[in-house]
């Protein structure tokens, strides 16, 4: 591996599973020290243990955290600084949804949860981490958004709205804090076969339905070579590395051209 993140300390929220786990593992391969912040101590500590087994003690730290709590963010920053002495990168990845369904049938509880975990979490990360970045005069924030924030899907309207929010505040924060050495970007993945996949698909997550899904957009077949989580991790490595020092305020679709797909003659 190219060690593109050597010397960087990166917090990855929701690092115990799915896209977050894939990013935590790739970041460690690229030389980073990673703090896996997750509400689930079983999966989060397992991922940290496995990363340390592969890359050496003190590569990964698990910190139990609830991204919707300011006190939890404060503890997360404190634990990261205690263990690794600094923080360079925060990946706001932890997110949730409700099962795809008619928007008027989404319950108030489901609505509050998706707003809290997908939106308030980033507000709190900025409230807690940006003062530290301002003092350090450097820092990188990467928000994990969704193609649903670019083109909102039927049955996932409130979810898509949270990700449209993520895209807009990514631009706004990049503009507001760029002069202070802080970069802010977002990645907009298409469906990843994670714990949330079934909720997004609206059908059973079976091999047949995956094949149908992969045939429904231009580069879907690339999922046979890697996984959606793998491609997102690759994009995250770039955006969090110094190679992207001049890149800020972008919301990068990692979606096999699904968002721009306009079926014409032929396929
Ligand atoms: N899976 C997809 O198809 C897909 C597509 C586009 C975008 N996304 C986005 O990717 C991100 C990660 O989703 P995923 O599919 O990997 O989900 P996942 O459910 O597989 O993993 C999410 C992780 O976040 C943790 N988490 C949940 N709530 C938390 C909280 N309040 N505090 C701390 N940790 C919490 C969970 O314990 C879990 O480990 C989300 O922001 C999601 O919206 C997912």
From TrEMBL:
Domain of life: Eukaryota
Residue runs in coiled coils: none
Annotated keywords: NADP, Oxidoreductase
Keyword Oxidoreductase among record annotations: yes
Signal peptide: none
Pfam families named among the record's database cross-references: adh_short_C2
Molecular-function annotations in GO: oxidoreductase activity
NCBIfam families to which the protein is assigned, alphabetical: PRK07231.1
Family: Belongs to the short-chain dehydrogenases/reductases (SDR) family.
Name the UniProt record assigns to this protein: 3-oxoacyl-[acyl-carrier protein] reductase
Taxon lineage: Eukaryota, Fungi, Dikarya, Ascomycota, Pezizomycotina
């Amino acid at each position: 591996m190219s060690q593109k993140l050597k010397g960087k300390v990166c917090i990855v929220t929701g690092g115990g599973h799915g896209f977050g786990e894939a990013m935590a593992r790739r970041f460690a391969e690229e030389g980073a020290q990673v703090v896996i912040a997750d509400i689930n101590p079983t999966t989060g500590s397992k991922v940290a243990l496995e990363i340390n087994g592969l890359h050496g003690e003190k590569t990964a730290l698990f910190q139990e955290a609830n991204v919707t709590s300011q006190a939890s963010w404060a503890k997360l920053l404190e634990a990261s600084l205690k263990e690794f002495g600094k923080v360079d990168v925060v990946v706001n990845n932890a997110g949730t949804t409700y099962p795809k369904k008619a928007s008027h049938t989404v319950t108030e509880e489901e609505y509050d949860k998706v707003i809290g975990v997908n939106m308030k979490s980033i507000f709190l990360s900025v409230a807690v981490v940006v003062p530290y970045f301002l003092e350090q005069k450097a820092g990188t924030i990467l928000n994990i958004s969704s193609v649903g924030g670019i083109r909102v899907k039927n049955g996932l309207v409130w979810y898509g709205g949270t990700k449209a929010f993520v895209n807009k505040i990514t631009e706004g924060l990049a503009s507001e804090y760029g002069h202070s050495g802080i970069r802010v970007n977002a990645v907009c993945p298409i469906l990843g076969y994670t714990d949330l996949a079934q909720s997004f698909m609206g059908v059973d997550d079976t091999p047949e339905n995956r094949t149908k899904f992969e045939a429904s957009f231009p580069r879907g077949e690339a999922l046979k070579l890697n996984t959606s989580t793998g491609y997102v991790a690759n994009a995250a490595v770039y955006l969090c590395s110094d190679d992207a020092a001049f890149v800020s305020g972008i919301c990068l679709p990692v979606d096999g051209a699904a968002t721009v797909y306009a079926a014409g003659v032929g396929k």
